[in-house]
Design brief:
9 helices, Arginase, Chain A, binds manganese (II) ion, globular, alpha/beta, 8 strands
């Protein structure tokens, strides 16, 4: 069995074959899933995202050399484990925000950083709160087709950054949003680089703008899979045409190494809308790995 467990199609499923851990004691980085999608405004299904991302991560988990083009394996530098999923809000969606914040608080209090797999994008709100308690107000590095700054008293996956800025969790003057392809009447002081501008900007130039914007601030990186064109990521709740491709996104991410990225998430993979190739979850798993590397690189500097 042990040899077969290394094959992408066999064995138990965890993120990149990481061991499961009960808690974050002794970890450098913990991975956590949030199977929640009750704050979606479009198509539901992101509750199945963490499992699909973990499954497609196995296509890359057999290589002991790491995830190309990173030239080392994250396990060689940092102690990383999969904590499984935050549960306990089934039929009680109002409990999600508190539960996620409590779990994130516990991980961060143990001295570990946190990479989270969504779930719809509303899960980022309690994650930001927990990280801001630990690190102070955060620079937001936000990849998405939507700004998620809609003015509303309600908390859903399109309003949480409006709330986060109003509450002082995010530093708008150090924050940047990229890939927007929907009306965005209010930037709330953040730098917004819309989808068309991304397509005209090289990965190097975009990464430079992010680095300049963020500076030395503690930063939280959130990647909504719908940043990508639906050709590359069709399985998501609110797809929008005309976005960048996966290679471009990954090149930008790689060039952010060294920024003080204290945490991050990959959200909105909704695998029910996949074709049989599962390309959205594959993109999600790869980008989640990139974020894991960035968090690790930040801890190492
Ligand atoms: Mn979005």
């Amino acid at each position: 069995m042990s040899e077969g467990m290394m094959e992408p199609y066999g064995g138990p499923i965890s993120f990149f074959r990481l061991p499961y851990a009960e808690n974050a004691a002794g970890l450098d980085i913990a991975v956590m899933g949030i199977p929640f999608d009750l704050a979606t405004t479009g198509r539901s299904g992101a509750r199945m995202g963490p499992r699909a991302i973990r499954e497609m991560s196995l296509t890359m988990a057999e290589f002991p050399w790491g995830v190309w083009p990173w030239d080392y394996h994250f396990n060689d530098k940092w102690k990383v484990a999969d904590l499984g999923d935050v549960m306990g809000f089934t039929a009680y969606p109002d409990r999600m925000f508190n539960l996620v914040e409590e779990h994130a608080d516990t991980v961060l209090a143990a001295g570990s950083a946190l990479l989270t797999l969504g779930g719809d994008h509303s899960v980022t709100y309690p994650l930001l709160k927990a990280h801001a308690k630990k690190h102070g107000p955060l620079a937001l590095i936000h990849f998405d087709a939507h700004s998620d700054t809609w003015e509303s008293d309600d908390l859903n996956h399109g309003t949480m950054f409006y709330h986060a800025i109003k509450e002082g969790i995010i530093l708008p003057e150090h924050s940047i949003q990229m890939g927007m392809r929907t009306p965005n009447p209010e930037t709330m002081g953040m730098l917004v680089i819309d989808g068309n501008e991304c397509l005209k900007t090289t990965a190097e130039a975009l990464a430079k703008r992010i680095r300049e914007r963020v500076g030395n601030q503690p930063a939280y990186l959130t990647f909504d899979i719908d940043f990508l064109d639906p050709a590359y990521a069709p399985a998501t709740g609110t797809p929008v045409v005309g976005g960048p491709n996966v290679a471009y996104a990954r090149e930008v991410l790689k060039l952010l190494a060294g920024l003080n990225i204290v945490g991050g998430d990959q959200v909105e993979v909704a695998p029910h809308y996949e074709g049989p190739g599962q390309i959205t979850a594959l993109a999600g798993a790869t980008i989640a790995a990139d974020i894991l590397y960035l968090i690790g690189e930040s801890k190492s500097t």
